[in-house]
């Protein structure tokens, strides 16, 4: 092994060649990640994809097998968590039950042997930012879930660090509180402009909060991009299927001469924004439900004939489940355009927003 | 549920049963159930009852009547005699000697064994390293090795330990130190044999606390001892109580280690009790014997009746090994 | 701690928006494995010492010395299997084994049956459940010495049950197990069951209570009688608890010592000898150490025979090493 490594000294967090094994299982596989100062990165993926594990490695709570971790230009690969210049917020809040809110927030500072006056000043400032001053002398047991999570954020805040790590901080809260705190975290980020690494399995949180999203599966980052790119140009089949609800429609077929052929379907691929469309015997056409429109008139190469099966009223809009040949297709339509089951319609494809995947490599073309 | 609303006729409008199903407290089934339980309870309670009534009778009354009859004339003479003048061999200062010996054995043994086991359990739950689980597995297997297998070599270990310590104390001019045959030898033995079950108890308890608390502590810069004392200990009172109950009753009731690792002057109460009751010389004074037996059983009985549910939790925790 | 390589070109931060600056820096070397989590390793020293010195070391020491002719002092003059031949040719040992077999079989069967039956009775949502449980479990808190002495007294033919029944008019009634070569072991069994069944009941009750309430609803809807539900549905469902109970009872049986010492001292004659007693007498009374080591090694083998199938059932297939 060479004893020197190239590191991007401008990055806030720089992860090089990170590998983590649990026994024979490789949990993280030679991972690289650069996070710019002030960037909000969301690690997104299904459970077991290694996103929380990666966060724990950054925090120093797990000893890695191989690789390097740099935070603010400092090699912290083997540093203690408290020496890494990070603050962390946990899913279960992890507030020390026997200490007051003030005690919880000042525990880390006391361990640093900071003067009491400085501790008080920092706690007061964090409490003000999070508006938890009235709670300072209460025990965590007397707080609601939302209040607890604010305190947990406050505990990270008083450390006055550049990097915040969030481990699914909102998943123990109910839907309403979750969206409130989501906005709060966003506001906090705008105000402090810290680097934030945020782990979640909730794609709404990821899409709303992130500057960039890292979609993970099986210990590997599948795609690292801005939310809009992830949504519109998913790098592969997994990312395409994981992001978006209801998920993207996948039609199995073949690409031949600039056209996509599936059973009973022929679509002209002109206007597709992606790579060169060489012929592929096995390809998958991915269409998001909102990128299809229902029309009555068939246009050769532009529309897909389908029959309505079910119409689900979602309140704001309506979801239409149709059958086109063997394929099930969902389409989002305005509520007022609802259709009865059995109606035959044509679906117009917006090719500029479609994705084509190679069925073998599962990568986007 | 069984009979609280017994025989209450169903009140309501219209025909058909309404409300709770009527139940009869004296249904044959209930009589069977409670009858069986009462007989069982009598069987279990009887020895305690016999101990009490026998210890309150004079010897003439014991020779005349039957052991189940309550005392006609209550006397506390046997208790006084058992406590202060009953003889074991040449010593005739009663069980009080054994009682205080047991107390002196109990206190350090409980403190040392629980201290070591709690730290061990914490380290095993939160600070695993390669090999720690393996040693723990062997420790648990060790709990099943019959004590008889290890008794003699432990005598040698304690003797050597004494010699080893003496090497330093003599060099420092403090004289020779004995471990085997002393209180501290027995404390070590109790610590060793209490370790598997207590460690399991503490390890499982600490492992059941949210792992994120431990992680938060590390991010906050607390180390091994900082997390133990500042975060874990304040949350662990219940498990310490359970461990105390387990150890107090276990060590108080010990006979085997007391016989082997101590000398007659510091025999614990159980050993002295056995020597008093099963001594072959003299006339048997059954009332004194029963008073002595009760006195010996008193400490664990008080612990048991005071702790109630926690005791059950303790033994259930102690029982679920592996 | 890591040898942190602090960026030498950190001045590059002053140029926002510039292309990422690449600097070549020394990588941190992995710190020595030995000193990572050092506090945790130090904390586990008592456990590791216990495992290595006592559970492994002392056990091997005893097994090795069982192949010698050690008498008063241990010495390493190997005589092959001579001690084992002597052991199996010894009448007292054979009596011990026979007693252990009878006591063990009965104790196992009755403990399980009585324990489960009592648990099922207490599970019937009865009133005073806590009182009944308290009464049935309290003997478990007592020392075996206390238990042995109480039952010695109750079974005393001159004052105890035999006399009470005779006084009722049954002049020829005989119930004197403790003085009968043939029945003495059953006298010990009565006392052993009295002390131990409460624990089994508690475990079983915990197991039964742990079962989903819906099972009962389902069996009621299908009209299965209560006793049948217990036997055919509940028992298979609490298999882990039963296995735990079996292991606990079995390891208790092999260790039984104090109870016999207190109740009969192994008598009359040698008819209530137990292996543990045999070991203790050989080692500490007769100064025939190697014979005691051989006997205790046999006890170890017996435990292994019980334990290995259990471990296989419990952890079968899985590797339990962390």
Automatic annotation (TrEMBL), chain A:
Gene3D superfamilies: 2.40.50.100, Nucleic acid-binding proteins (2.40.50.140), P-loop containing nucleotide triphosphate hydrolases (3.40.50.300)
Every ABC transporter domain range: 13-243
Domain of life: Bacteria
Coiled-coil intervals: none
Protein's recorded name: ABC transporter ATP-binding protein
Gene Ontology molecular function: ABC-type transporter activity; ATP binding; ATP hydrolysis activity
GO biological process: carbohydrate transport
NCBIfam families: PRK11650.1 (NF008653)
Family: Belongs to the ABC transporter superfamily.
Keyword Nucleotide-binding part of the UniProt annotation: yes
Record has Protein transport as a keyword: no
Gene Ontology CC: ATP-binding cassette (ABC) transporter complex, substrate-binding subunit-containing
UniProt source species: Neogemmobacter tilapiae
A Pfam family reported for this protein in Swiss-Prot or TrEMBL: ABC_tran
Keywords attached to this entry: ATP-binding, Nucleotide-binding, Transport
InterPro entries cross-referenced by the UniProt entry: AAA+_ATPase, ABC_transporter-like_ATP-bd, ABC_transporter-like_CS, ABC_transpr_MalK-like, ABC_transpr_MalK/UgpC-like, Mo/tungstate-bd_C_term_dom, NA-bd_OB-fold, P-loop_NTPase
SUPFAM superfamilies the record matches: MOP-like (SSF50331), P-loop containing nucleoside triphosphate hydrolases (SSF52540)
From TrEMBL, chain B:
Membrane disposition: Multi-pass membrane protein
Tagged with keyword Protein biosynthesis: no
ABC transmembrane type-1 domain segment(s): 99-307
Protein's organism: Neogemmobacter tilapiae
GO BP term, example: transmembrane transport
Cross-referenced CDD domains: TM_PBP2
Family of this protein: Belongs to the binding-protein-dependent transport system permease family.
Protein localization: Cell membrane
First-listed, main subcellular location of the protein, grouped into a coarse class: membrane
Superkingdom of origin: Bacteria
Any Pfam family hit: BPD_transp_1
Transmembrane portions of the chain: 31-52, 103-125, 134-158, 178-202, 223-246, 288-306
The protein, known as: ABC transporter permease
PROSITE patterns: ABC_TM1 (PS50928)
Keywords from the UniProt entry: Membrane, Transmembrane, Transmembrane helix, Transport
GO cellular component: plasma membrane
From TrEMBL, chain C:
Keywords recorded for this protein, A-Z: Cell membrane, Membrane, Transmembrane, Transmembrane helix, Transport
Transmembrane segment boundaries: 42-64, 100-122, 134-154, 183-208, 229-254, 289-313
Gene Ontology annotations of biological process type: transmembrane transport
ABC transmembrane type-1 domain location: 97-310
Localisation per UniProt entry: Cell membrane
Chief site of localization: membrane
Annotated membrane topology: Multi-pass membrane protein
GO cellular component: plasma membrane
InterPro entries per the UniProt record, alphabetical: ABC_transporter_permease, MetI-like, MetI-like_sf
Superkingdom of source: Bacteria
Family: Belongs to the binding-protein-dependent transport system permease family.
PANTHER family, A to Z: ABC TRANSPORTER PERMEASE PROTEIN (PTHR30193:SF42)
Protein name: Sugar ABC transporter permease
Organism this protein belongs to: Neogemmobacter tilapiae
């Amino acid at each position: 092994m060479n004893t020197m490594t190239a590191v991007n000294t401008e990055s806030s967090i720089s992860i090089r060649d990170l590998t983590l094994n649990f026994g024979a299982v490789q949990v993280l596989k030679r991972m690289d990640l650069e996070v710019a100062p002030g960037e909000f990165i969301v690690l997104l993926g299904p459970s077991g994809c290694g996103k929380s594990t990666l966060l724990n490695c950054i925090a120093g709570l797990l000893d890695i097998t191989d690789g390097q971790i740099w935070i603010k230009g400092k090699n912290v690969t083997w540093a203690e968590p408290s020496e890494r210049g990070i603050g962390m917020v946990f899913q279960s809040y992890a507030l020390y039950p026997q200490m007051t809110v003030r005690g919880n927030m000042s525990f880390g500072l006391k361990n640093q042997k900071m003067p009491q006056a400085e501790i008080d000043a920092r706690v007061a400032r964090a409490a003000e930012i999070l508006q938890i001053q009235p709670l300072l002398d209460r025990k965590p047991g007397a707080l609601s879930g939302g209040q607890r999570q604010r305190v947990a954020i406050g505990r990270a805040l008083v450390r006055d660090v550049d990097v915040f790590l969030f481990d699914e901080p909102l998943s123990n809260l109910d839907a309403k509180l979750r969206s409130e705190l989501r906005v709060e975290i966003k506001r906090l980020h705008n105000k402090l402009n810290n680097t934030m690494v945020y782990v979640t399995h909730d794609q709404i949180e990821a899409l709303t909060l992130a500057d960039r999203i890292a979609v993970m599966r099986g210990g590997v980052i599948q795609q690292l991009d801005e939310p809009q790119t992830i949504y519109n140009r998913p790098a592969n089949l997994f990312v395409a299927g994981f992001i978006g609800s209801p998920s993207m429609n996948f039609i199995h077929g073949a690409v031949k001469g600039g056209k996509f052929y599936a059973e009973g379907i022929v679509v002209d691929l002109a206007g597709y924004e992606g790579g060169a469309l060489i012929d592929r015997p096995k390809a998958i056409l991915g269409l998001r439900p909102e990128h299809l429109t229902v029309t009555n008139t068939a246009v050769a190469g532009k529309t897909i004939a389908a029959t309505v099966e079910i119409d689900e009223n979602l309140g704001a809009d309506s979801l239409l489940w149709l059958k086109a040949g063997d394929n099930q297709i969902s389409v989002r339509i305005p509520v007022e355009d609802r259709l009865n089951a059995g109606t035959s319609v044509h679906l117009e494809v917006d090719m500029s927003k479609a994705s084509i995947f190679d069925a073998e490599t599962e990568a986007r073309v | 549920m069984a009979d609280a609303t017994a025989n209450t006729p169903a009140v309501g409008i219209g025909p058909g049963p309404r409300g709770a199903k009527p139940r009869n407290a004296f249904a044959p089934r209930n009589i069977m159930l409670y009858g069986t339980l009462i007989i069982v309870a009598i069987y279990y309670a009887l020895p305690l009852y016999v101990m009490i009534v026998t210890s309150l009778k004079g010897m003439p009354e014991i020779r005349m009547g039957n052991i189940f009859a309550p005392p006609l004339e209550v006397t506390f003479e046997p208790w006084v005699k058992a406590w202060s003048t009953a003889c074991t061999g040449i010593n005739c200062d009663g069980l009080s000697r054994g009682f205080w010996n047991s107390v002196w054995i109990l206190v350090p043994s409980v403190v040392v064994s629980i201290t070591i086991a709690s730290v061990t359990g914490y380290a095993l739950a939160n600070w695993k390293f390669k090999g720690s689980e393996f040693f723990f597995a062997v420790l648990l297997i060790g709990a099943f090795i019959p004590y008889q297998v290890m008794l003699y070599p432990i005598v040698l270990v304690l003797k050597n330990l004494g010699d080893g310590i003496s090497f330093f104390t003599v060099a420092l001019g403090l004289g020779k130190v004995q471990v085997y045959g002393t209180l501290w030898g027995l404390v070590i033995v109790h610590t060793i044999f209490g370790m598997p079950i207590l460690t399991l108890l503490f390890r499982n308890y600490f492992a059941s606390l949210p792992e994120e608390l431990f992680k938060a502590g590390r991010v906050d810069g607390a180390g091994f001892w900082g997390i133990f004392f500042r975060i874990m200990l304040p949350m662990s009172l219940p498990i310490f109580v359970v461990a105390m109950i387990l150890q107090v009753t276990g060590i108080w009731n010990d006979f085997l280690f007391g016989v082997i690792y101590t000398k007659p002057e510091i025999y614990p109460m159980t050993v002295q009790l056995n020597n008093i009751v099963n001594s072959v010389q003299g006339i048997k004074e059954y009332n004194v014997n029963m008073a002595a037996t009760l006195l010996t059983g008193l400490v664990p009985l008080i612990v048991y009746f005071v702790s109630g549910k926690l005791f059950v939790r303790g033994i259930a925790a102690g029982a679920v090994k592996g | 701690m890591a040898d942190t390589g602090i960026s030498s070109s950190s001045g590059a931060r002053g140029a926002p928006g510039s292309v990422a600056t690449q600097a070549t820096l020394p990588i941190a070397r992995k710190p020595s494995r030995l000193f990572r989590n050092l506090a945790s390793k130090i904390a586990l020293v008592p456990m590791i010492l216990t495992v290595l010195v006592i559970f492994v070391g002392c056990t091997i020491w005893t097994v090795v010395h069982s192949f010698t002719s050690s008498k008063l002092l241990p010495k390493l003059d190997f005589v092959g299997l001579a001690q084992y031949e002597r052991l199996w040719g010894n009448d007292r040992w054979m009596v011990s084994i026979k007693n252990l077999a009878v006591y063990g079989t009965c104790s196992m069967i009755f403990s399980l049956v009585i324990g489960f039956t009592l648990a099922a009775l207490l599970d019937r949502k009865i009133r005073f459940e806590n009182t009944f449980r308290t009464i049935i479990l309290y003997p478990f808190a007592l020392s075996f010495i206390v238990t042995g002495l109480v039952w010695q007294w109750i079974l005393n033919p001159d004052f105890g049950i035999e006399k009470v029944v005779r006084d009722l008019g049954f002049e020829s009634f005989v119930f004197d197990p403790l003085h009968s070569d043939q029945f003495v072991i059953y006298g010990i069994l009565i006392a052993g069951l009295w002390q131990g069944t409460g624990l089994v009941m508690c475990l079983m009750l915990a197991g039964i209570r742990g079962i989903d309430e819906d099972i009962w609803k389902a069996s009621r809807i299908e009209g299965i009688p209560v006793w049948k539900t217990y036997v055919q549905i509940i028992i298979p469902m609490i298999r882990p608890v039963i296995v735990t109970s079996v292991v606990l009872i079995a390891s208790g049986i092999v260790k039984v010592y104090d109870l016999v010492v207190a109740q009969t001292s192994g008598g009359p004659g040698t008819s209530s000898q137990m292996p543990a007693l045999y070991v203790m007498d050989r080692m500490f009374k007769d100064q025939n150490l190697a014979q005691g080591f051989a006997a205790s090694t046999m006890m170890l083998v017996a435990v292994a025979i019980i334990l290995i199938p259990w471990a296989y059932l419990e952890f079968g297939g899985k590797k339990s090493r962390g």
